[in-house]
Amino acid sequence: MEDKTQFRNFYGRVRGKTLRNSQKTYLADDLGAVQLRGVSRDENPERAKIDPKAIFGTGKPLWLEVGFGGGEHLVHMAARYPQIDIIGCEPFVNGVAMLLGKLRAAGVENLRLYPGDVRDVFDVLPDQVFAKAFLNYPDPWPKARHHKRRFVNQGYLTELARTMQPGAEFRIASDIPDYIRQSREEVPQAGFDRINDSPTAWDDWFSTRYEQKALREGRVPHYLTYRRAAA
Ligand SMILES: C[S@@+](CC[C@H](N)C(=O)[O-])C[C@H]1O[C@@H](n2cnc3c(N)ncnc32)[C@H](O)[C@@H]1O
User: Fold this and answer.
1) Where along the chain is S-adenosyl-L-methionine bound (predicted)?
2) 208: burial class by Cβ within 10 Å (0-12, 13-18, 19+)?
3) What is the mean pLDDT of residues 28-52?
4) How far apart are CA 4 and CA 118, in angstroms?
């Protein structure tokens, strides 16, 4: 059967400023050890499902962060919760390099990353693998004609819902009122119950680069918490 997913569009940036030499070194020396295997089309052209237990070999609860940016929240969660394993996805190579630098300093073992589109990860995972998922400051796509590119659309959300365990928590942070509006509309349709909708962050929140930028520019963060409904 033809693999239609190979033609899917990614509209975000994959490269930014020229990488510093130290960042090039992180990518060359460190990425291999923490990269999630069996996800890219080169490694898995058949798109065969991978065994999530084989990723870490621990059997611990598995969490996901979509679009980790510079990785500050991802590393914070990995360090704070050694009893879980966490996967982060990020196609922006500068962000991946930043995360690798932070990983050297943090020395956490329970984190793997996929330097690409989260949809590639969804493709190869079986149902009900994630016990928690984070979507922090997703790309806002402000123009109405681009709203369909937002993560909070059924295309992304039904795959997220499929890969989440019943009762698993899904957190969204955003400073864009229209993104919060669309999340309130779309996320429940994909099979999530709203638990909290608040201007106050979670107790274990770690403010990200994009949140810091939003605060500097006078925008107001908002936090949504959902729970995957029982199947
Ligand atoms: C506005 S930035 C926020 C980064 C970070 N979460 C923060 O709060 O600082 C959104 C990030 O999501 C990433 N992203 C967009 N689409 C994605 C996708 N399909 N899969 C994984 N990451 C994605 C972008 O590359 C970008 O780095």
Assistant:
1) 65, 90, 117, 139
2) buried
3) 94
4) 16
Domain limits of the chain? 26-228
Given a cut of 80, is residue 161 above it in pLDDT? Answer: yes
- Residue 38's identity, in one-letter code, is G
Annotation says 85 is catalytic: no
Annotated binding-site residue? 210: yes
pTM of the predicted model as reported, rounded to 2 decimal places: 0.96
Architecture in CATH of 26-228:
3-Layer(aba) Sandwich (3.40)
Residue 116 near ligand 1, beta carbon < 6 Å: no
Q: Residue 149: what pLDDT?
A: 94
Q: Is 123 in the pocket of ligand 1 (CB under 6 A)?
A: no
Q: Is the pLDDT of residue 202 over 80?
A: yes
Residue 5 pLDDT = 65
Strand partners, 173: 136, 223
67: CA distance to ligand 1 center in Å? 3
Element (H, E) at 124: helix 118-124
pLDDT at residue 1 above 80?
Answer: no
- Asked if 141 contacts 147 with a C-beta cutoff of 8 angstroms, the reply is yes
